[in-house]
């Protein structure tokens, strides 16, 4: 799995050179700018809501009053750290929902960009098919909804685990790995659909190559550490990188 993660990470560097060489910037920047605007607005609003929810929860459960009565600095520190981790998990949960909503909205563009990338790789001029595009969009929406539901189940389980002292400290890492896998899954599935793989076959195939999905999602998230530029480039770069990383496997399978 580690080898496949490295391949997926290297695919982002290949994607950058690929986009430059074939002048695909218009397919990168337009959706990226829309994504960035929605991302900033959403993160601001949900960040405030999450903070208010944690404060309300501490008051309603009597936890804050109990800590004040104990007047124990170490317990206060653990409570503050736990609250921070809980806030991070809530933000990841929001980011997950936002990400899948954008995947559903942007599925026509992502499906086309993945197809165009593979056509350039294989040196083919694939004729545009509106019928096939509709199939790709329908498939992309189905996979996005399916992945969001499964990821929500895992994320809620991780949120409950975060309430356990000490063990909860590992939950942000677990949540991030789950996020990376399911996002990368959605990106890889565009290629699976194009090769006439059913949803079940795609789930099995990507399950056998989890490293590609995790690696793709990991760099997508890391790009968000670079404000604005990373946010603009991350969505479309992940599509191109996923197509480049899975193409050798599909060729070998043939």
Architecture overview:
By secondary structure, the protein is an all-alpha fold. It has one domain (2-39, 84-253). It is 86% helix and 0% strand. The chain has helices at residues 2-21, 25-60, 63-70, 73-105, 107-122, 130-162, 171-194, 199-208, 210-222, 229-253. The model has no long low-confidence stretch (mean pLDDT 79).
User: What would you report as the Rg, rounded to the nearest angstrom?
Assistant: 20 Å
Largest sheet composition: none
| Low confidence ranges | none
Q: Based on helices, strands and strand pairing, what is the structural class?
A: mainly alpha
The DSSP helix count reads 10
Defining key terms:
mainly alpha; 254 residues
At a glance:
This protein is mainly alpha-helical and 254 residues long.
Please render the helix and strand layout as text.
Blueprint: H1 2-21, H2 25-60, H3 63-70, H4 73-105, H5 107-122, H6 130-162, H7 171-194, H8 199-208, H9 210-222, H10 229-253
Helix pairs in contact: 1-9, 1-10, 2-4, 2-10, 4-6, 4-7, 5-6, 5-7, 5-10, 6-7, 7-8, 7-9, 7-10, 9-10
């Amino acid at each position: 799995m580690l080898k496949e993660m490295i391949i997926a990470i290297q695919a982002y560097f290949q994607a950058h050179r690929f986009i430059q060489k074939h002048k695909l910037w218009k397919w990168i920047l337009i959706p990226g700018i829309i994504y960035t605007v929605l991302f900033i607005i959403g993160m601001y609003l949900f960040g405030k809501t999450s903070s208010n929810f944690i404060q309300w929860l501490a008051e309603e459960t009597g936890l804050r009053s109990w800590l004040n009565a104990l007047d124990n600095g170490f317990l206060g520190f653990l409570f503050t750290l736990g609250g921070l981790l809980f806030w991070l998990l809530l933000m990841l949960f929001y980011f997950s929902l936002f990400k899948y909503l954008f995947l559903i909205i942007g599925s026509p563009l992502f499906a086309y960009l993945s197809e165009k990338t593979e056509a350039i790789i294989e040196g083919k001029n694939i004729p545009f098919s509106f019928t096939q595009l509709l199939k790709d969009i329908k498939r992309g929406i189905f996979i996005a909804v399916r992945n969001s539901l499964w990821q929500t189940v895992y994320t809620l389980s991780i949120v409950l685990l975060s309430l356990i002292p000490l063990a909860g400290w590992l939950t942000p890492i677990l949540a991030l790995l789950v996020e990376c896998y399911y996002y990368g899954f959605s990106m890889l599935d565009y290629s699976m659909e194009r090769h006439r793989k059913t949803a079940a076959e795609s789930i099995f195939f990507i399950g056998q190559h989890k490293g590609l999905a995790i690696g793709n999602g990991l760099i997508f998230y890391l790009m968000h550490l670079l404000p604005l530029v990373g946010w603009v480039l991350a969505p479309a770069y992940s599509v191109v990188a996923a197509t480049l990383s899975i193409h050798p496997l599909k060729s070998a399978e043939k």
